[in-house]
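for the recovery benchmark. tokens below, seq after
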């Protein structure tokens, strides 16, 4: 097979690398722009400050992952030092705010170049922030899972001990629990929901410290989380919801198809077939190409060459191989084959909210496919360009996103 053909084919398939952002900010590279938008979008929740983000972005050399890492780390260290000074002076709230921003900046720094030390900085500063916060009540938890534990954050509306509905929140392909607590969890707590944010295989601390990759049968992950939740005296066992974000738009629906103690599920954005999303633009014999060792080898060689000059492709393939526990790009694509709801969606019985974004280039068309396949009580929620919420998972417009999603949750839980 000719390499030129393989290149054009594969670049048309990698949804995470070729998405064109409707909100290009400072950078021409779409992934750099999107990740800057992601950092900026945390501002309403205290996870960033706009000036700090912009000054950092203007220092970054376009397409240079080392420059991205160095400049965001520089800003993170500066804001961390603010937190240290505030804490030493007894200004607990100010210290908490600074640590929360620094945590997100370290997470942003580590996005293209994964280093355990930088990720750990992000996690540890987040823990410092919530311990100084006072209210709401958020604490770290360890959730028993097979022969190990899953990390999580349990957030309570107050210390009254009153039973309240629970929203379990999980990330997807590349996020962390530390990112989700302020950006999604704070809004839930304000509305009277207790929260349990957790990371599973392939995510956050689980892939970094335990080296456990993703698994397609996500109910095996969520059931122990529900078991743990039901042991908490503040949780109403009859009002439990699960929200999956980004790749979590496959994981959460998969889980509730088998875990029926969950009464409501939110998929933002919904995914019907993760594998189909990667290969649908390819030729009819693409699966055979993947399974042919020589063709797969040629493809891999070509992809590696392209990764050297394409930051988005470099990140998408590199992150995919890492979190799926494989060694080559072609193995990554093959590893996504079981990640489909084709024979599973009809088994879902709980109420479903399937969320979509008008210009979601990462998962185009997947949400509506999932919605149509569902036989349970369901609703489709589309965020639009007119609202400024058209990006993948409504990044950059999370106030709008939270308002509309939680309004639905109020009605249905």
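predicted aa per position
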């Amino acid at each position: 097979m000719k390499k030129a053909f393989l290149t054009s084919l594969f670049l048309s398939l990698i949804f995470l690398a070729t998405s064109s952002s409707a909100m290009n900010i400072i950078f021409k590279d779409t992934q750099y722009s999107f990740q800057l938008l992601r950092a900026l979008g945390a501002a309403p929740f205290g996870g960033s400050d706009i000036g700090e983000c912009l000054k950092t972005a203007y220092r970054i050399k376009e397409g240079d992952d080392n420059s991205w890492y160095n400049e965001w780390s520089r800003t993170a260290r500066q804001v961390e030092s603010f937190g240290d000074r505030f804490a030493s002076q007894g200004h607990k709230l100010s210290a908490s705010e600074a640590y929360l921003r620094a945590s997100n900046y370290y997470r942003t720094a580590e996005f293209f170049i994964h280093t355990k030390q930088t990720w750990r900085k992000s996690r540890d500063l987040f823990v410092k922030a919530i311990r100084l916060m006072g209210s709401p009540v958020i604490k770290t938890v360890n959730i028993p899972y097979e022969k190990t534990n899953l990390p999580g954050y349990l957030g309570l509306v107050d210390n009254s001990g009153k039973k309240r509905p629970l929203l379990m929140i999980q990330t997807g392909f590349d996020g962390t629990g530390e990112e989700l607590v302020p950006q999604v969890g704070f809004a839930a707590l304000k509305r009277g929901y207790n929260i349990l944010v957790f990371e599973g295989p392939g995510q956050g601390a689980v892939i970094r410290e335990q080296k456990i990759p993703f698994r397609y049968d996500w109910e095996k992950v969520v059931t122990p989380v529900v078991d743990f939740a039901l042991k908490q005296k503040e949780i109403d066992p009859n009002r439990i919801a699960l929200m999956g974000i980004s790749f979590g738009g496959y994981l959460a629906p998969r889980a509730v198809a088998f875990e029926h103690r969950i009464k409501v599920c939110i998929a933002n954005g919904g995914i019907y077939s993760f594998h189909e999303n990667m290969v649908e633009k390819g030729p009819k014999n693409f699966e055979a190409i993947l399974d042919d060792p020589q063709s797969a080898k040629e493809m891999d060689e070509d992809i590696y060459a392209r990764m050297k000059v394409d930051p988005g492709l470099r990140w998408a393939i590199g992150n995919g191989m890492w979190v799926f526990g494989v060694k080559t790009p072609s193995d990554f694509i093959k590893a996504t084959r079981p990640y489909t709801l084709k024979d599973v969606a009809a088994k879902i019985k709980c109420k479903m909210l399937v969320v979509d974004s008008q210009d979601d280039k990462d998962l185009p068309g997947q949400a509506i496919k999932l919605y149509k396949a569902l036989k349970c009580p369901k609703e489709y929620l589309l965020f639009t360009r007119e609202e400024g919420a058209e990006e993948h998972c409504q990044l950059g417009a999370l106030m709008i996103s939270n308002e509309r999603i939680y309004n639905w949750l109020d009605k249905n839980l």
